Amino acid sequence: IIEDNLANSRLFTIGIGSAPNSHFMNRAARFGRGSHSYIGSTDEVSDKMKILFNKLANPVLTDIKVGIAGSDKFDIRPRKMADLYIGEPLLLSLKAESLPNEIVISGLFANEKWQQIINLKGGAESEAVSVLWARRNIEDLMDEYRRDTSNESLKQDIIALALEHHLVSKFTSLVAVDKTPARPQTESLNSKAIALNPPANAMMNQFPQT
User: Fold this and answer.
1) pLDDT at position 204, please?
2) Average pLDDT of the residues in 187-198
3) How many other CB atoms are there within 10 angstroms of residue 138's CB atom?
4) Poorest-confidence range of 47-61, 93-107, 193-207?
5) 56 and 35 in contact (C-beta within 8 Å)?
6) In angstroms, how far is the first alpha carbon of the chain from the final one?
7) Contact partners, residue 86, CB within 8 Å, separation at least 6
8) Exposure letters 30-59 (e unless 16+ CB within 10 A, then b)
């Protein structure tokens, strides 16, 4: 619904406290080419909203595109670049057999065409980059899977990618086995039900009626 009706608008979501569904709100903002703002308590609302309004009033770069010679040989994530606002970094990852010498970042700055050539040689190496790319890849594949949950090949691609990079996904889990004995097998097990915890700082039966 967001994608079909967004047109040229942008969607920014705001969650206050621990009760809102952050996963949904993050995804909604991502589909809406905006961002999600988390506010821990009502005491932070004023300061956090000022930061958000300042961002909205200062879009730095819109319609961002990445240009690479022979771009069909590279897998760039995310596929859709969100607009860049003041105080935000532009973060992207790409997979390639060999690193190109440079890439070109282009977009609209104050409604005028803008571009910057970025030299990729000489940067530090880190194993975390591949994990970052894999996480972004899984996010994109999951977005496609949600549109077509009967697509078995998408599901298998997600599983293979998650297993290769040891990541938790909708279809994969990490299992830790603790071999330290906690209770002798000869002793009986005492069990009891534990009450569910409400969201932090929430008072049950006193939520606003919406």
Assistant:
1) 64
2) 84
3) 24
4) 193-207
5) no
6) 22
7) 54, 55, 58, 59, 60
8) bebbbbbbbbeeeeeeeeeeeebeebeeee
Rg of the Cα atoms in the chain:
22
State the Cα angle at 2 between 55 and 17, rounded to 5°.
55
Instruction: Evaluate whether 66 touches 92 at the Cβ level (below 8 Å).
Output: yes
Contact at 8 Å (CB) between 77 and 94? yes
- The answer to whether residue 205 scores a pLDDT higher than 70 is no
Whether 147 has a pLDDT exceeding 90, the answer reads no
> Which amino acid appears at position 51 of this protein?
I
Q: Judge if the upstream peptide bond of residue 78 is cis by omega within 30 degrees of 0.
A: yes
Query: Which residues make Cβ contacts (< 8 Å) with residue 204, sequence separation at least 6?
Result: 198
Q: Which of 18, 59, 22, 7 has its CA nearest to residue 41?
A: 18
pLDDT at 207: 63
Please give the residue that has the higher pLDDT: either 7 or 181: 7
* Number of neighbours of residue 159 by Cβ within 10 angstroms: 15
